[in-house]
Amino acid sequence: MSQTIAPVLGEATVQDLREAVRGEILTPADAAYAEAARVWNGAHDGHRPALVVRCSGAADVIAAVGFARGNDLPIAVRGGGHSIAGFSTCDGGVVIDLSRMTEVRVDPVARRATVGGGAVWADVDHETQAHGLATTGGLISTTGVAGFTLGGGIGWTMRKFGLACDNLAAADVVTADGRLVHASETENADLLWGLRGGGGNFGIVTQFELDLHPLGPIVYAGPIFYPADAAGDLLRAFRNWAGTAPGEITGLVDLTTAPPLPVIPEEWHGKKVVAFIAASTGPVDEGEALVRTLREVAEPIADLLGPMPYGVIQTLIDPLWEKGIHAYFKATNLARLDDELIDRLRKLHLAAPGPQCEIHVHQMGGAVARVAEDATAFSDRSMPFVLNAVTGWRDEGAGAAHRDWARAVISAASDASTGRAYVNFLGDAGAGRTSYGGAAYDRLVLLKDDYDPTNVFRLNQNVQPSAAAA
Ligand SMILES: Cc1cc2nc3c(=O)[nH]c(=O)nc-3n(C[C@H](O)[C@H](O)[C@H](O)COP(=O)(O)OP(=O)(O)OC[C@H]3O[C@@H](n4cnc5c(N)ncnc54)[C@H](O)[C@@H]3O)c2cc1C
Asked: Is the Cβ–Cβ distance between 101 and 116 less than 8 Å?
């Protein structure tokens, strides 16, 4: 938490900006400032931006960038505000907040959605499902389309439809020098490459164009909960199943604690459990056959895997991750899920310091792996699994124990890791070259030199331009 006090800006300059924008500008003098300065992650609350500009459109974004640069102030860009590392707030700078820019328009014939730069996945799912369409979104519906898609985007439909960034067909971007440029396969294609995994390094996306696919309204999806002592058997069965399962299904094993939900027998509430969660994009009546082997692992505590509305699986765990919770994640890409690692994960699960300490093992492959390594900035595509240590806590004093535990989970996997990590699952800044890998990172630096040579957009998993690195 930061104690820095926001600098006093000349009211004349702020007044100029007020006249230039149609959205809202909040300074520490405004009653609504405290709420506007809050981010989703309580662990990053307490920062004091000089102002929050709630933009109404691209013109406001251009004005805000110009104002910040003219006053030599740092810029934090906010889409859904879910950054685990706290990138969408700052001290003494300008928060360019796109959370009012949530419009989603669907072209059902072209199977394409245009999505405002501040929309969250609930906005997209709501509009696209009205047409029986969907695209890969997050496991939580309040996560922003922007940060999620620009970093990569792991979701329930990825093994059939690709990552979110693979469905990014085009974008409108406000650059560091205040231009509004379009990026697509035929226009500024280099920029589109960078937006597909390179994060917010190259500008502020005011509008996304996302490819859509037929899906729903009913899909075969949901969780099966088992006692914690089935974790080893489940992870081994999951490893074997994952290698042969068709792209229609995407699965996840979650070593967690049973939440106090009515669908879970009360005697299990608060106890360590392991869940297999999956979603199929295929025919509903073929879903059961796809997951049968994972049903035979042990006697379940609760089996909720079956036909359900797509909108339900997309919002199922929202109540556990409400705004204000403190959160820290740490992740690594796995080259293998061997018996030694399974044993270490099983033990770390039992040693977790709180009920929202979860070990996620995501099944990758399918459509994710079919995209060429150099086709997008998201470049580590051959890994069969992604390991994510997810923690959330409400008592401020519990942060150190949660962070230490998450780091221990990822350290335990070091010999099974590809050495790379998915940037959106990292709670610490400075992921850089290690996460992207040398070749992709070198290309990202060249793109950064073109679009943001003075590193105006640096509150992100930062790609340092050559001038800064020299
Ligand atoms: C509860 C929770 C669940 C999650 N689940 C998943 C999941 O299922 N799959 C997954 O892949 N990830 C998941 N994530 C991680 C998520 O993808 C990242 O936190 C992502 O960055 C959030 O995007 P946002 O727009 O909400 O965040 P923000 O905090 O608004 O922004 C994140 C980053 O993107 C930049 N940015 C934001 N908007 C723009 C814009 N319009 N233009 C340019 N840059 C912008 C910001 O400056 C910042 O650097 C989850 C995170 C949380 C907290």
From this structure: yes
Tokens of 452: 């943001």
Q: Euclidean distance between the first and final Cα of the chain, in Å?
A: 31
| DSSP label at residue 430 | -
Alpha-carbon distance 307 to 280, whole Å?
Answer: 10
Q: Which residues contact 403 (CB under 8 A, 6 or more apart)?
A: 328, 391, 427
Tell whether ligand 1 has an atom less than 6 A from the beta carbon of residue 390: no
Tokens of 123: 């906005």
**Cα(186)–Cα(206) distance, integer angstroms:** 19
- For 331, how many CA atoms within 13 A lie in the half-sphere containing its CB? 27
Beta-strand relationship, 357-363 and 385-393: antiparallel
Q: How confident is the model at residue 469 (pLDDT cuts 50, 70, 90)?
A: low
- The total of other beta-carbon atoms located within 10 Å of residue 66's CB is 16
* Ramachandran region, residue 261 (left: φ > 0; alpha: ψ -120 to 50; beta: rest): beta
pLDDT at 12: 59
Measured in whole angstroms, the distance separating CA 265 from the mean position of its chain's CA atoms is 31
Find out whether the beta carbon of 143 lies less than 6 Å from any atom of ligand 1: yes
Q: What does the angle CA 85 – CA 320 – CA 394 come to, to the nearest 5 degrees? A: 60
Q: What is the pLDDT of residues 431-463, one digit of tens each?
A: 888 899 889 999 999 999 999 999 999 999 999
Contact 207, 171 (CB under 8 A): yes
Distance from chain centroid for Cα 424:
5
Residue that has been written with the tokens 């949660």 in this structure: 402
- Ligand 1: residue of 39, 53, 83 to mutate (most ligand atoms within 8 A of CB) is 83
Spell out the residues 6+ positions from residue 415 whose beta carbon is closer than 8 angstroms to its own: 341
> Mean pLDDT over residues 189-214, rounded?
98
Q: Would you state the structure tokens that stand for residue 108, as one six-digit string?
A: 């059902």
